[in-house]
Amino acid sequence: MPTKKLIDGYRRFREKYRSDHAVFDRLAEEGQDPKVLWIGCSDSRVVPELITGADPGELFDVRNIANIVPPASSGACATGAAVEYAVIHLSVHHIVVCGHTECGGIAALAADLEPEKQPHIRSWLEFARPAREQVLASGTAEEDIYPETIKANVLQQIANLRSYPCVADGEREGTLTIHGWLYDLHTGTIQAYDRESERWEPIARHTPGAG
Ligand SMILES: [Zn+2]
Question: How far is the CA of 41 from the centre of ligand 1 (A)?
Answer without folding.
Answer: 5
